[in-house]
Amino acid sequence: MIPRYSRPQMVDIWSPETKFRIWFEIEAHGCDALADLGVIPKEAASTIWDKGNAATFDIERIDAIERETKHDVIAFLTHLAEIVGEPARFVHQGFTSSDVLDTTLNVQLMRATDLLLEDMDKLLAAIKKRAEEHKYTVCIGRSHGIHAEPVTFGLKMAQAYAEFDRCKARLLAAREEIATCAISGAVGTFANIDPAVEEHVAKSMGLKPEPVSTQVIPRDRHAMYFAVLGVIASSIERLATEVRHLQRTEVLEAEEFFSKGQKGSSAMPHKRNPVLTENLTGLSRIVRAFVTPALENVALWHERDISHSSVERMAAPDATVTLDFALARLTNVVENLVVYPERMLANMDALGGLVHSQRVLLALTQAGVSREDSYRLVQRNAMKVWDAYQQRLPNPPVFLDELLADDDVRKALSEEEIRDKFDIGYHTKHVDTIFDRVFG
Amino acid sequence: MIPRYSRPQMVDIWSPETKFRIWFEIEAHGCDALADLGVIPKEAASTIWDKGNAATFDIERIDAIERETKHDVIAFLTHLAEIVGEPARFVHQGFTSSDVLDTTLNVQLMRATDLLLEDMDKLLAAIKKRAEEHKYTVCIGRSHGIHAEPVTFGLKMAQAYAEFDRCKARLLAAREEIATCAISGAVGTFANIDPAVEEHVAKSMGLKPEPVSTQVIPRDRHAMYFAVLGVIASSIERLATEVRHLQRTEVLEAEEFFSKGQKGSSAMPHKRNPVLTENLTGLSRIVRAFVTPALENVALWHERDISHSSVERMAAPDATVTLDFALARLTNVVENLVVYPERMLANMDALGGLVHSQRVLLALTQAGVSREDSYRLVQRNAMKVWDAYQQRLPNPPVFLDELLADDDVRKALSEEEIRDKFDIGYHTKHVDTIFDRVFG
Amino acid sequence: MIPRYSRPQMVDIWSPETKFRIWFEIEAHGCDALADLGVIPKEAASTIWDKGNAATFDIERIDAIERETKHDVIAFLTHLAEIVGEPARFVHQGFTSSDVLDTTLNVQLMRATDLLLEDMDKLLAAIKKRAEEHKYTVCIGRSHGIHAEPVTFGLKMAQAYAEFDRCKARLLAAREEIATCAISGAVGTFANIDPAVEEHVAKSMGLKPEPVSTQVIPRDRHAMYFAVLGVIASSIERLATEVRHLQRTEVLEAEEFFSKGQKGSSAMPHKRNPVLTENLTGLSRIVRAFVTPALENVALWHERDISHSSVERMAAPDATVTLDFALARLTNVVENLVVYPERMLANMDALGGLVHSQRVLLALTQAGVSREDSYRLVQRNAMKVWDAYQQRLPNPPVFLDELLADDDVRKALSEEEIRDKFDIGYHTKHVDTIFDRVFG
Amino acid sequence: MIPRYSRPQMVDIWSPETKFRIWFEIEAHGCDALADLGVIPKEAASTIWDKGNAATFDIERIDAIERETKHDVIAFLTHLAEIVGEPARFVHQGFTSSDVLDTTLNVQLMRATDLLLEDMDKLLAAIKKRAEEHKYTVCIGRSHGIHAEPVTFGLKMAQAYAEFDRCKARLLAAREEIATCAISGAVGTFANIDPAVEEHVAKSMGLKPEPVSTQVIPRDRHAMYFAVLGVIASSIERLATEVRHLQRTEVLEAEEFFSKGQKGSSAMPHKRNPVLTENLTGLSRIVRAFVTPALENVALWHERDISHSSVERMAAPDATVTLDFALARLTNVVENLVVYPERMLANMDALGGLVHSQRVLLALTQAGVSREDSYRLVQRNAMKVWDAYQQRLPNPPVFLDELLADDDVRKALSEEEIRDKFDIGYHTKHVDTIFDRVFG
């Protein structure tokens, strides 16, 4: 998490201020529940809320106490006692520190996920808009980086939409995974705290009680969470890679938006680099990097050890802040992507119509020519076109013209039949079906 | 995937025989759909089914053809034509090879998942049985590897049950992720194949149509799938680590079952090593290893490249076969784990009752002693016990006796009040609540 | 490790036959040393060598014994006793199983590394040959996928050479890491075996004694080893990616060799896909996948646990076999890569000479024009050329002509001065320097 | 990189101040070289040094310029021009931004490595001291967590020393990898800059010229670098895990130092948790996390893309700062580790001398008893001892006494012969040999 790749709202979730505020809320909700159970006086709970709500927690003071006690929760509670006064002794009764820490982490992750879900909705909206805009903008489909058959730019966007829609569903599931609360005391047996407290705090904080915690909330939940972030990062990389490819000088079918004053190079006016999507490629690697440590965090010793803690102190902010930034940046790239439909057609046509060769081949076989002969006929015309393209010859031959001029081909197929095979519409007839599946 | 860590049923899913059989079924179901659409004769489809069902595909023959054509699907289709005869020309019409390959991979993953789900059910049943058996078998809970407060062995099992129950839910979700079918032709536009064919094949194979494929089924699905296997592996590692810890010589609260003739060491009769759970720890690392390549597989170029293929040829069998083996081995470990309740109590008591110190401290404060004084009183008695334990003194002092003999303590608390704090039942009173949450 | 991506010589290293032969050699060399120390009779050692050398180890028999004893080394020793007869009782004296297993693994890794080093030498030779062949084959250099300034194809090869030369040095260092031998007995104290035995076996097997083993050879060595394989895999990916980019339809500056009969597509004659380099991209991911488990293998418990074993049984063959295959495949790709120098020039010229804009700009400033004015003058001519390129206009303007026709430019620069800036040789004048650095 | 796990000296290396100072030095050394070549006036170079050395770079001002230009190097150069005045136009001539950025990264990594090497030396010194102190402090060696045969605590330390000594050698090699300089201009051809400039800057900054750069320094170097950090992290985890195991309540052979006032728990005086080594376990995971993205950074497109940049902006500081902190923390743990030799003996003796069973067995066979009978004799005595241990019986039988009282044993061995097998010195006789190997 560095300022360059951070947005304030997500950073705020991970600030000390937010953390201490959540700690306070958990403790105060706990007091409410303890008061309901008659364990502590109702007025105490009420005072704790009033004074705590009115106060600003002094982070430097808390840090100073921690330097002494070497215990962060105790440092906070000491500071809280300074604010709350006498009723402070009713705070944290029967709690263990992990109750506060683990529940807080999950609240933070839940809030982070809510931001990521907003990001995702914006990204989906942006993709959808471009998909509809370019539903029938024909471009060449490429397998292995090689021209194959026509698709549309809208289809590319529809694919991305479907993929990020799945990512959204995964994110919702990941939110469920980590939206749990543990207030179960040392080693999680509720020996010194009633399960009703956990239920009350959980409900108040928008969480569910963890069915069985062992002082800690089990880390398979967090492993799953970070794995989902990693998958989303990979999907970001996929779309970013598509843009990078489309912007290559030789392809140039789309470009990241360039602001007016922006200069790609001090000398070469054409130098507009896909730096945003290259950056997204790198950010994806960083988000994915936290999947493995999260998986390694699962096997804590016995009821708990604390090896997970340092990992999470770094990974939780870093992964969520970076992913939030990346989703927003990708949305921006999609919204402002400059698409060149003419260039798309020109690229496709650069092969002189070769993309239609399969249909001509099939038509020949349907007209009674053997498959072997058909292939030979198509190929001898195709190769002329291909060789010219390969050598970038000026005024290269056009595949349709070659076929029309080939007597053997014409014996089997009429001019109209041949021309019919060069219909781009043939390839887009099911675009609507696919759009219905994705957006319907 | 090596024989040592493989079970035949899962291995079979990844055999060439199974693969070619699925290829055939996809092609044959496709013929049915094409026949329904009137594209090919119904009798052709019928003949294809009859002859294909009757035949055994000759893998050596297919391999020989592939060596020539360097294309596995064409090799198979050529062999199929040898079996089916003339109607073979109606096979694969409008299909692209990836339609067959990707759909087959997903069928295999789906079947593999079904086996894993069976494994998971057996593991859950085994854990539940041991949980109920040892619901109230008290043992010390350990945080940081250090004695904390009492738990029960049943609670340890309940935690494992809840964790693997989550893993089962994740596995079901992962099955949904990959149970899709693509029969959409080159670059996925359905230009040469009606979407109805995809729908029919999908339904026949137990899959859902992929909303938008681009020659390939998008790999974010598989990334998510392998990530879930990785999380399950980590949960296996957690339970395996627990057993390894419990079997340590100094702890010895449980042991992996040793068959009668088995020898841990040729010389030392006590040498029974937790080799199964150590092995599970290693296998977990292997299953997790495939998460990263699966994440790297997502960002294919444009409509597809084939970089994912070699990864999946190795990772899909290796990850599922290894996880299947690991789940079965863990089930075996749990079912046959030898638990030593007396040793558990002995270990807990080895600290002379120190685990109750917190309750005595609280009782003193409730009896009006200041917190500082209470701590001092408890500590001075506790330290005698602790020092004796640390030095492994013979006939070490017992915490209860020391407290009863401490006049300052007795001024505040009666013998009965003190004895009451040494009640183990206090710590297990909510075991039932937790069991209800987990198994209820 | 699957047959598709395996070569026999490397596979042989990991066969049971090879493994048992190394086990035998270690035991027999151990007997020699024990005989020298007078611990066992010299004739016994001699008989063991004679009978063992003459025998073929019966793997099925060994497996059968292991099924009984559940111990692989004991199974082998039992079988060896069947072969050797009475002197067998002198075998393995004071050894622990890990002495044999760990030393054998290192012998196998050392031999695997020797094969990889041969692979690397062949790859380096192939790259060097192409580098020299195309030392001055000019092509456009691309940053961010965008045309920048000219380089040569030979420079691309020189870069690859330097990178793989580093990889070779790393591989040599990795060989040093794992070429160690441990014959130190249970927990590594030499209590029951003289260090002289270890020294003798080490020397005989081409290894160095492990300074301090703890029953096992420390796994930081193997972690480093697999990390080096991972780095090599990434370098393979880099060169593979370069080829994939160069073969893109729009770029087409080079192509993987296509054998005469090979068909990229049944219908489209131009469809020659870079499937080998795509495959190499995937194989790289697999080799890299083993880095993390190898890192996780380091922290064994106390003097040893056996969690590393299952990881290595799979990772060691898989990583080395796959890397061997990948290096050989890459060598083949490089040797047979079809390079199109004319197309390279054509691509570079497609931008109408824009790649020289920086030099014109600098010349203008040197001629006294302010930097701002210079930029404006260059840009207004460049943009005409660029726009025509972007729109793929027929007969696009040529940058040199535009500049020559611009009065403001001509006020500062003569025709000769301008033409001089379009000299490709300017960009290649230090190719020789770089070649000297790399190949000198 | 968060304050909690950071040390100021390493953090400083990654500060904006340090970065801009290195940028300046690279540019200024470049000017010297250009002046020597006669490309720019000597006085200009001299003025640049004087004014630059005297100035403090204003980071806020640079940031403000970058917000406008969206280019960090241009922003710095603009600010430098404000400081230097007219001669600023001679700065950066023929440089490309990456020349500055990549060379700076390597300078920072080199300096970071120098700090890590200092850390490593301190750690090695600390380990060596403890090794010598406890050279003959006997403790039980454990394989699989189970008592095996005696070792010494010094041997444990010697193993750690040898391992970190290897890590130091790897770190030195990693330093070599990244200590290179590139001043080769756009796409690395030296078209606009003489190689002599690179050589001068390299020498001045303590680097070697990169033999062939392609605008960027190749990232296989950095991949190797981060891999080495990952291996070191794993070695840290290994030693940390050893301490965690030794501190377990049931083992308690060593403890992390506890400062006087420190409290592990507010209630339980025995609660001293190995939190430092648990923390080191987590930090290791974080350092290792950056290995995979560094491997993914290698395959940049063509002459360069910028996807590596965001990864390195986060990973380079995070990995080095965290590792620096971890090495220092581990050194502190080792230096202050409280070792309990008596407890070590007590733990070993808790099994009533069973650790000597192998030697008794061997002695019986040497005395003419068949191996089978010997095993039976040893086992029947050992099992009594073992069962008592397993059940934690009071006054458990002692193995030596049982053997001495066994008539069948005594028929073969005299009391003296039996007692002789219980000599701990037998196991430590080669400690000196091993120490010589490691420290000699």
Can you walk me through this structure?
- The first copy, chain A, has about 450 residues and is mainly α.
- Among the domains of chain A are: about 95-180 and about 210-345, Fumarase/aspartase (Central domain) (Fumarase C, Chain A, domain 2), CATH 1.20.200; about 355-420, Ribonucleotide Reductase Protein R1, domain 1, CATH 1.10.40.
- Chain A contains 20 helices and 6 strands.
- Chain A has helices at about 10-15, 15-35, 40-55, 60-70, 70-85, 95-135, 155-180, 195-205, 220-245, 275-290, 290-295, 305-335, 340-350, 355-365, 370-390, 400-405, 405-410, 415-420, 425-430, 430-440, and strands at about 140-145, 145-150, 180, 210, 255, 340.
- In chain A, the strands form 3 sheets. Chain A has a two-stranded antiparallel ribbon. In chain A, strands 3-4 form a two-stranded parallel ribbon.
- The first copy, chain A, is elongated.
- At the A-B interface, β1, β2, α7, α9 and α10 of A face β1, β2, α7, α9 and α10 of B.
